[in-house]
Amino acid sequence: MTQSKLRMGMVGGGQGAFIGEVHRLAARLDGQIELVAGAFSRDPDNSAATGALLGLDSSRCYVDFEQMMQAEAALPEESRMDFVVIVTPNHMHFPVAKAALQAGFHVLSDKPATLNLDEALSLRDLVERSGKRYALTHTYLGYPLVRFAREIVAAGEIGNVRKVFVEYIQGWLAAEVENKQAAWRTDPARSGPSGCMGDIGTHAHNLAEYITGKEMTHVAADLSIFVEGRALDDDGSALFRMQDGVKGVLSASQICVGKENSLSIRVFGETGGLEWHQEEPNSLIRTYSDRPTETIRAAQGYLPDSVSSGYRTPPGHPEGYLEAFANVYLDFAQAIREGRDVATGVAGAVRGMAFVEALVASSQNQSVWTEIDA
Amino acid sequence: MTQSKLRMGMVGGGQGAFIGEVHRLAARLDGQIELVAGAFSRDPDNSAATGALLGLDSSRCYVDFEQMMQAEAALPEESRMDFVVIVTPNHMHFPVAKAALQAGFHVLSDKPATLNLDEALSLRDLVERSGKRYALTHTYLGYPLVRFAREIVAAGEIGNVRKVFVEYIQGWLAAEVENKQAAWRTDPARSGPSGCMGDIGTHAHNLAEYITGKEMTHVAADLSIFVEGRALDDDGSALFRMQDGVKGVLSASQICVGKENSLSIRVFGETGGLEWHQEEPNSLIRTYSDRPTETIRAAQGYLPDSVSSGYRTPPGHPEGYLEAFANVYLDFAQAIREGRDVATGVAGAVRGMAFVEALVASSQNQSVWTEIDA
Amino acid sequence: MTQSKLRMGMVGGGQGAFIGEVHRLAARLDGQIELVAGAFSRDPDNSAATGALLGLDSSRCYVDFEQMMQAEAALPEESRMDFVVIVTPNHMHFPVAKAALQAGFHVLSDKPATLNLDEALSLRDLVERSGKRYALTHTYLGYPLVRFAREIVAAGEIGNVRKVFVEYIQGWLAAEVENKQAAWRTDPARSGPSGCMGDIGTHAHNLAEYITGKEMTHVAADLSIFVEGRALDDDGSALFRMQDGVKGVLSASQICVGKENSLSIRVFGETGGLEWHQEEPNSLIRTYSDRPTETIRAAQGYLPDSVSSGYRTPPGHPEGYLEAFANVYLDFAQAIREGRDVATGVAGAVRGMAFVEALVASSQNQSVWTEIDA
Amino acid sequence: MTQSKLRMGMVGGGQGAFIGEVHRLAARLDGQIELVAGAFSRDPDNSAATGALLGLDSSRCYVDFEQMMQAEAALPEESRMDFVVIVTPNHMHFPVAKAALQAGFHVLSDKPATLNLDEALSLRDLVERSGKRYALTHTYLGYPLVRFAREIVAAGEIGNVRKVFVEYIQGWLAAEVENKQAAWRTDPARSGPSGCMGDIGTHAHNLAEYITGKEMTHVAADLSIFVEGRALDDDGSALFRMQDGVKGVLSASQICVGKENSLSIRVFGETGGLEWHQEEPNSLIRTYSDRPTETIRAAQGYLPDSVSSGYRTPPGHPEGYLEAFANVYLDFAQAIREGRDVATGVAGAVRGMAFVEALVASSQNQSVWTEIDA
Predict the structure, then answer these.
(1) Does residue A214 carry a pLDDT above 90?
(2) Beta partners for B108?
């Protein structure tokens, strides 16, 4: 089990960028990954300062990602980075991933993978040709009880799935907000065709497909801009249909005042139901037709090993977002070592973009049922 | 304040009928209403036995509602019934209401008021011409915190309303069920054009309009029959739009295994939000953008009198469904005494039927946006 | 099943007295009890006005309880009251009960039964000699899930009981309060030797004994007066021991700011646990060592008939304090009809007083372990 | 802000020891601490293997702590460890701390600091003479909302504190358990005079003192051994008194079937209350006498900087036990850099031991009130 650490290069994540620091915390937690290189910011001073703060060799703090790929590829195999993590605004995800793959590096990318479906399809080709690992940081799939929910459904324990309710609602954009986080999320050039749905609706879509094991096939969507002057949706709801007759409702919103990161899902099958809330991730609710509702808890002895192995502490010591995020890193590291694909790979990238494009198309066309063409 | 009791006649509610007994409990609770007459069942023996059990004079246990209207109208004013409560299956609501109004009695009716919109419009005319009170038992409006939610919104305290999530989900029809309750709810001839939506979706619709003070104008609906062999929807979801740009999602389902009577609503305005769950009716959640979320509690001293007067016991003594139901009776009794209209009057009856018809039409037409024509 | 109503006379409960009205609501709910007589207040005008408001014959509104007992006993059996309900301040409970029993009436009394243990022992003798029913309105035993908790324990399903946590905390006396409710509760002459413990600690004691089926044998108590100038405890906690090695902690407080009627109990046995909260009375939590925690819900099909029969509505329609109270009335009425004892009879009255006296004695004596001598 | 990492040596925490790995996760999370040396196990193979797995230089994997102190002290200042973390069973805490302090190293120790009060007093002397930092890993003080609770109380916002309820209950020792964790916790030679109270009761004590800012002065305790054959308490409750008239109840138990790490505290002052549960650490409940109860949430903008700075992610991304633990490490690292004391320093070590000794003495002496002599 003694393994050398995987070496990571980061694009984006300069000082002041929230998500970059979160990635570093998650990558660091289990001691299996080492940050060795970075193109943290297009501002060379910021990039250098960030690297210094993180204890990086200054020679491996780059001014842009192209330079980084070139320079790292030129290093001896035993010291150059193994993979690139992409934590830039959305519009840079694809160009950086492309450059990394072409330079021979595995890629872990924030979602969305690309700005549109065409790019996602190109990315898929690139990944397939490269023979490298590619994964999206669908953080919420890193929660072990989400994996357990998927296992319960897959085992047929709730019968055929019938109905899914999934939503991701926040309140932080209920009024005009002027900060870096808000700026790119509301800018079509940097976020793609959708704001709220592209940012967080995709998490809801991804979670629904993951737990049910079904692909979403059609949506009838109504996206909204509630805050005047905004160019992209800050709210939306959609009816949807999945394979095998599953139906559902998906909502995402950033104008639900007082809500934080309220991602939740409820799945009902013929004989049972499951319910999970991201903000209370250590409980999974299970309903029956003829028995009391159960609260399945993190790290409990009654969980299968595949689930309980995802916890670092015994029951009752809450684990949260960073641990879930670290699980995504662990899974990616393991996939690199084993040369296998991950559940959050490029196929999901394509599906996510197709989902967003279908939503936007439906909403622009009187909410007509629109196929997700992935 | 010493008032003589109002005298009530009941149509429906024979032995074995759940809802009739609930009505009697609610009517009895506050000691202001007395059951004096009944046409409890089309089975004369059942009707007589029910009346006997309830201590009614056998001369006032009727074999059908026509006989009841005629005989009661012939009694001296000081002894004949003041109003009729209708607790039959849906298809009888309108004929009985019509007969009662025409015989000069006020009417309190279970919802839906009628089987379709045409009947509802006729009913509205009848009510207007009669000069009598007519109300639907929208029980959930009887919860004082629902009234408080309406007052908060009306006072502008959450800003202009933007988004509404409302749902009513149950699990009891997730499999085929063979009992009296299930039988008429799944029979078009007795339930009207919709099963689940007509039965409980209308409560969700009614609650959303009541709290927001806005009329729902359009729906894009997807109704489903999940249990094979059923003739009416047992599940459905709809995107909707209300006056003044409010948007929302409404779901109703009877196939959500393990769910009981999970009616809940969340309303988000520009500056705040409200959340209420029927199964925990003594709390109202209020969210802010810049302050902690509050849990407003039943019967508390900080509530306005208009709300706290709806409670019979001090804070911390849970009040529930029967008390809410009794509030509907109290309000109706008061309206009769004062000769005023009630919030749950015939206008809502028309709106409810128009809502159901719009849902069904939309669902049959590819979920196209359909106007609620009330 | 056709039964004539039981006729009730009430002592106390004049206009402005909260608890009298609650009794009347509870007695009325199921239509099996009729209020026919009252000595509602020592103020004859109040008594008469209360009776008039309630539709009582003025001849049966009495100026004091002695007159009431005498006059009612003189009425023909078919019209005189069957039982007396006592809703006066504490110090009157015993004298009224005594008079009623001696006049040949069954008695339902608010707790505490008497002001001290000596009176309680006298009361026990009186009851035994009278051959009449006597019961205390331990309202919280009226919740069907409390009964289910008792059944689970009695069936050995959680193994031998080891530890009990029980508490009843309120906040309404956290500051000086000037009203009728507060006045007598803080007056030794009207409340007996304890304030908070006598008022609500006894509910906690009673609940613990009822669910576990064990008698509390010893307490080590620390009672407090936190609000200056008060003559009786407004807070207290006690370690306790029960039969068969059960240990526990009991707290009661009226100075816990923001708390309403937070009565809760947790019972842990060798192999399982139970948890119930009065403010969410429709759920009973059950814990296991090797399975997920369950939430048992009111009125569910999986409950035994002995429990589900205590509900008036299907699952998901919350029932609360008034329904529990009405169950106490129903049980008492049934006991009268069957000539049997009730679970909340005079034995509990003696136990409750002995409990309070032991608490006070322990607290006055350095919290030394003190036997409950009942 | 660019700081070199602090170098850490670990005593205990060999493969198979749960808590050592938790420490390493916590120490690693923020990238400010580097593990450089270890005496992980008395089994040299285990120690070496653990070090290898962690990427340590084999020359710095020691066979015992004495050797470690000597060898590290002999290294040049710029490479030798800065501090020692002690994660052994309880009986080794003091000897290792003593050796470390005497060799000139700062010490971070699992609690309890020592096996008894005498040792704790010696430790205090040692710390004072050494001029080095000493801290206990009272992990639960690492939750930022716990710090906020303390600030609210200190600012007088709930008035003078009156009553405290604190408890820490688990279920994992409800039956005989045979594993390493259970073995030393139930062995007096390795755990000291108390089992459950020493292990987790001390957390409850520490939390109560921290939030209220008051010292606990007296206890009246009842400790129990429920599982036959066990030598130390597996359950206990105590009445307690604190400075300035504060009263309370403390319970700790390891036989509460189904409970995980249920540490919770409720503090009531004259005008408000606070409630916090370790298993839902991202919420702090605040009660008022005349306003709705508030749920204060982690990382919210309305928190003071002193609190919000303790979070690594925005609101709604749950942080948990590991993040709290990492905060303890951050605080200790900062204290070393600044040469200042920490809130969880040696004074608390003495207080904790005095608390345990008072509990045991009281329990052995008929639960008589016993002074905590610290």
Answers:
(1) yes
(2) B85, B135
D256 touches chain C (CB under 8 A): yes
Q: Are strands B272-277 and B262-269 parallel, antiparallel or unpaired?
A: antiparallel
CB D266 within 8 A of CB D274: yes
Q: Is the pLDDT of residue D2 over 90?
A: no
The interface predicted TM-score (ipTM) is 0.95
* Residue D3, pLDDT score: 62
Sequential DSSP letters for C283-342: EEEEEESSS-EEEEETT-TTS-HHHHTT-SS-TTS---HHHHHHHHHHHHHHHHHHT---
Q: How confident is the model at residue C2 (pLDDT cuts 50, 70, 90)?
A: very low
Neighbouring subunits of C (3+ Cβ pairs under 8 A): A, B, D
Express each pLDDT in D342-354 by its tens digit: 888 999 889 999 9
Beta-strand relationship, D262-269 and D272-277: antiparallel
Report angle CA B271, A16, A235 to the nearest 5 degrees.
Answer: 35
Q: Strand, helix or coil at A262? A: strand
Residue A200 CA to residue A205 CA, distance in Å, equals 9
The one-letter amino acid code at C114 reads T
* C177 interfaces chain D, CB cutoff of 8 Å: no
pLDDT of res. A333: 96
- Judging contacts by C-beta atoms under 8 Å, the chain D residues touching residue B296 are 292
Report yes or no: C235 and C249 within 8 Å, Cβ to Cβ: no
Phi, then psi, of A255 in degrees rounded to 5: -120, 20
From chain B residues 112-171, the ones with a CB under 8 A of any chain A CB are 158, 162-163, 165, 167, 171
Query: By C-alpha distance, which of D55, D110, D115 is closest to D85?
Result: D110
| Residue-range domains of chain A with CATH | 6-139 (3.40.50.720), 142-313+351-364 (3.30.360.10)
Taking a contact as any Cβ pair under 8 Å apart, which residues of chain C between 350 and 369 contact chain D?
A: 366-369
Query: Within chain B, which residues score under 50 in pLDDT?
Result: 1-2
Residues 279-318 of chain B with CB under 8 A from chain A are 287-289, 293
Tens of pLDDT, residue by residue over A2-46, are 468 999 999 999 987 788 999 999 999 999 999 999 999 989 999
Query: Any CB–CB contact under 8 A between B177 and chain A?
Result: no
Please tell me the distance from the alpha carbon of residue A294 to that of residue A224, in angstroms, as a whole number: 37
Which residue in the block uniquely carries the two structure tokens 């099996």?
Answer: C32
State the nearest Cα–Cα gap between B48 and chain C, in angstroms.
12
Cβ contact C295–A296 (<8 Å)? no
Q: Which residues of B touch D286 (CB under 8 A)?
A: 292
Chains that touch D (3 or more CB pairs under 8 A): A, B, C
B91-107 confidence digits (pLDDT tens): 999 999 999 999 999 99
